[in-house]
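[Q] Does anyone have a clean structure-token version of this?
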Amino acid sequence: MDQMQALFLLHEGLAQCGPGSDAETMRAIALLPSLPPGARIVDLGCGTGRQSLVLARALGPLEAVDIHQPFLDELTARAQAQGLAGRVATRRADMAAPGYAPASLDLIWSEGAIYVLGFGRGLALWRPMLRDGGLLAVSELSWLVDDPPAEAAAHWGQAYPGMAGVAQNLATARQAGFAVVAHFALSAEAWLDGYYGPLVRRMAELTPLARQEPALAQALDETRLELDLYRRHGQAYGYVFYILRKSPHDPSRQA
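[A] Here you go.
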């Protein structure tokens, strides 16, 4: 088992793979400008798809994309159980190249996943897939203070070197060819109740296996450290939802 396999295993069976909640997803949905009839919606990096189900209920049919087939299988089963099978299709693909034609999507949604690509790179890769005026709703790990505690800065400087503050991310979005519609920080409950609570129970289930799997043991140790860090310094950082609209100008064609 390698490190990526360990992380996938850690999150299998969970309703979500990162901080968030149905309430936070609905808050972001409420901030969206009107979508056209029959809007084509894609949830990139959907994981096990908690938010995909919320989107399907609130907005209509969508396609959920992830690289890990067991996550997609879990989402399919949950969609069927909740009477949403006709509204949630899945696609196994890499977020960096999901295979959508240029200007073919009305809304790209992505919760807690763009960090895999990096915020600026993700925006640059996904913008061409949106129609003119298309929308991007993405949550991204962001600094919430200008001068974060040294311990938090050291941890995230190693774990996510590209992590930036809200103002910098807004500037990056504008430079990437988006207008900012709205943004807000997720609540502490979205971390502690929505994500870390179930994750701690999952870690307990996997502890016996971790004794034989070094990569899994490392993943559990790193998750415990991350949880402890958030409990002590969570006021300094968090996930921020950025609701963006594709601007007419193409930044790649600027001189």
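[Q] Thanks! Anything notable?
[A] The mean pLDDT is 93.
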